[in-house]
Every structure is written in C-alpha cells, then in structure tokens.
Amino acid sequence: MASQGTSSPNIHVLAFPVPGQGHITPMMHLCKKIAARDGFTVSFVNVDSLHDEMIKHWRAPPNTDLRLVSIPLSWKIPHGLDAYTLTHLGEFFKTTTEMIPALEHLVSKLSLEISPVRCIISDYFFFWTQDVADKFGIPRIVLWPGSAAWTTIEYHIPELIAGGHKLVADESVVGIIKGLGPLHQADIPLYLQADDHLWAEYSVQRVPYIRKASCVLVNSFYDLEPEASDFMAAELRKGGTEFLSVGPMFLLDEQTSEIGPTNVVLRNEDDECLRWLDKQEKASVLYISFGSIAVVTVEQFEEIAVGLEAIGKPFLWVLRPELLIGNPVEKYKEFCERTSKQGFTVSWAPQLRVLKHPSIAAHLSHCGWNSVLESISNGVPLMCCPWGAEQNTNAKLVIHDWKIGAGFARGANGLIGRGDIEKTLREVMDGERGKQMKDAVEVLKCKARKAVESDGRSAASLDDFLKGLSSQ
After folding, report:
1. C-alpha–C-alpha distance, residues 456 and 171, integer Å
2. PANTHER family from the xrefs (predicted)?
C-alpha cells in the first residue's frame, strides 16, 4: 500500500499481461499481493479494448495503490483472446509489437505523473518488453502464467524444431526435453503443432529472451513440479536469472482480500448458481466449464448432453454465448428443458467460489492452467477435455503424472462419444477410480495451501523477490 508520511516515492511496478483471461488473472493476483505491501505502487496495463470492458467490473482493492491503465492495439478483443485469435497466433503476436512505441511513451508518462517506473513485470510471450526495459535501464521480470513443465518445453523449442518435432500427434517419445518425465509427441502443446510460419518465427525469437530477464515468476508451487522447477532454476541461474515458483497465485488473494480470492471479471458472473449449489448434497455436483476461449460443435454438445442425462447427476454447466458453434439454439433449448430438474446453466460463473463449494464433486474442464490449479487447490478431481494452447500438456500432467484426473478417447472425427463420456463420468463420480483421484488431489490441495502460508516455499520466494525490488 502507499507509504504515508515519507518523502521517498513508492516502488513503482508496471505490469503488462497478455490480453487473455488465463494470462490476466494470475498477473492481477500477483499485482494485488504486491500493491498490498507497504511502499509499492502498481500500474496494470491492458490493451484498450479489453481495458474498456474490464474497468466496468473493476473493484479496486482497499488500501492499495493499484491502477488500471490502457495502451492502444489495433486488434480488438474486449473479452480477451478468443478462438479466432488462437487460430491466428502468429498474426496476433506480430501485431502486438506495434505497442512498443506506445509502451515506451507510457513508461515515460507514468514515471513523470506518479513516480519513476522501477521494473516491468510482463508476460513471457511479450518478450519484446525486455527491449523497452533495457532502454529505460530497469529490470524486466517475466510472469510465467502456466506450469513449470511448460517452461521446460518452451525452453527447448530450438531443439524441438531442429529435431522436426512438429504436427505429428502420435505416441513417439520426445527425449530431448530435460526436467520432465516421458513425453509423447501428442503431449507437446497444441499451439506448437500449428502450421503457422509467423508463429514459428515468433516462438524461436522469444526463447532467448527468458535468459535476459532478471527473474521468472511461475504460477505453480514447487512440490507439484520439483523436477521441472529444479531444471529451469539451474539452467537460468547460469546467466544470473532467478526462477521462482510463487503460486498458486489466486491463493495469495485469500491473504489480502476480506471477501476471499476473486478472478478478473471480463463477463458478468451469475451468482444465482451459488444459491442453486447451496441446495445440492455434499460432493454431488459435476461442474463443467471450458474456459474463456474454447468452442464446441453442436455434435459434441449433444454427446456431452446425452452422457450427462444418462448418469442423472446434478451438474452446473458454464455455457458462454459463443461456446457453441453450428446453429445450436434449438438443441440448447431442448437440453435445458429436459434437464431443468437435474442441472443449472449459466453464461459465466464465479469459478473460485464454485470450486470451493462443498457440493462440487468433480470438474469437467478444458484444462487451462488456472482451472487446473484452482481445482487442485480446492481438492476437486478433473475430467480433461483439452481444446488448444498447452491444455493437452496440462491434461497429461493431471492424468498420468499426478493421477488426479481422467481423460476421454476421441474418435476419428475428433468427437468424444456419449458412451465414453457416460463411462468416465460414472467412474469419477461413483467409482473406485474417482475415490483414488480424490485422495490424490486432497494431498496436493494441502501442499498448494501450505506453499502460500507465511512459512511456505511460494510465500518465502515471493517475499525474497519483493525485498530484492525494495533494495534496488
């Protein structure tokens, strides 16, 4: 929070996430924690179209100096990255480099109006912010919004490309990625399998920049991924870059917020679902959410719907207006009518409060990293339906490494059939496999929450990092 009665200015941090829900959320959790510390000011930068939407829902944390500011970008994404953007990653990220002059101007402007910007915390994928930081003679800190395992894969991109590991989603083993257990070609993040030459160029460009940062903050906790964390820490230490696991970042909000942790809101949340959950039995409800970007065909929607009806369990399903593609209106109406006594649908849910609710038994998820961490930290087993980005890698970790989730088999047409959906739902909701997953995720839940306690490893790492900033 702002210093009182002193002549020395606060340490001014400029934070700049990639404009997507999954990237903005951990950055905001981190910035709330920083701004709650005495002597810090945080300027949180969003692209203009998203800033205009976010500010409608913004509630400034009390007793902190945390400000929202905007920067112009010609690519308009009021709700953050969308399905179109994810299929045109090269074009999008090339467009983001047009913000370099605007960011330089913003750093100068904020330094004059508030106090000198002392460091830039930016998303890993905005590697060009390092050049801006260098121009002003200030450090850049990388926020890695995903797993430590994901960092090791990104770190090995030059070797992956040299080895021809691209677009062959088969069971051949990729043996060149250190810090991870056995990894099949199909486990390589889907975005690295895209046939996009602009994205390939951008990918190769960004890797060396991680070694130029003064520190990398990872939204994970050490006990979840010790091997990957140790490998990356040792590698980056050679060049003087720290690698610190400081998550789960959303749990940091529990220490600084009177109302508990809240995610960044880019859509109107429907709190009515919480009152519906209050009426359900303990550990009886299946929560379904495919995140903020994924889309689902009408055919896949029908397969899921039939599987849900077959098991007869209560469910809470987040159905964003743009989630279903292919003229779904009638199918959606019919489904809602048939299941009105079984389930509840919303266009967007307060996910942190949903996953914390005692009625939730399992989470059918796209396996975005925030959803994975939030499920782990609340002791909720997962059913994995990855759609894009690194979600397939996350699903591999959840199912095979940590054994806290189950997957589905896709047919030749890419569909997950109703029979497999029903079978997996029954196994997780009622079977022995589900009990084993629940036991395993409860162990990780305890470790996640321990990590952010005052004597926990994540808390200590973040504290050391902030002390280092204070002493510069």
Report:
1. 38
2. GLUCOSYL/GLUCURONOSYL TRANSFERASES, UDP-GLYCOSYLTRANSFERASE 85A1-RELATED
Match 């130029």 to its residue by tokens: 212
Structure tokens at 8: 């020395």
Closest CA to 377 of 441, 306, 421: 441
Closest CA to 345 of 266, 418, 272: 272
The string of pLDDT tens digits covering residues 322-367 is: 888 876 778 888 888 999 999 999 999 999 999 999 999 999 999 9
Per residue in 234-250, pLDDT (tens digit) is 999 999 999 999 999 99
Render pLDDT for 66-117 as a digit per residue (tens, 0 to 9). Answer: 999 999 999 999 888 888 888 888 899 999 999 999 999 999 999 999 999 9
Which residue from 37, 49, 45, 40 is spatially nearest to 68, judged by alpha carbons?
A: 45
Taking each helix axis from N to C end, the angle separating 369-377 and 432-451, rounded to the nearest 10 degrees, works out to: 90
Whole-number pLDDT of residue 6? 41
Angle, vertex CA 390, rays to CA 384 and CA 392, nearest 5:
35
* Closest-CA residue to 140 (of 200, 233, 206): 206
> Strands 215-218 and 183-184: what pairing?
unpaired
State the pLDDT confidence band at 220, using cuts at 50, 70 and 90: very high
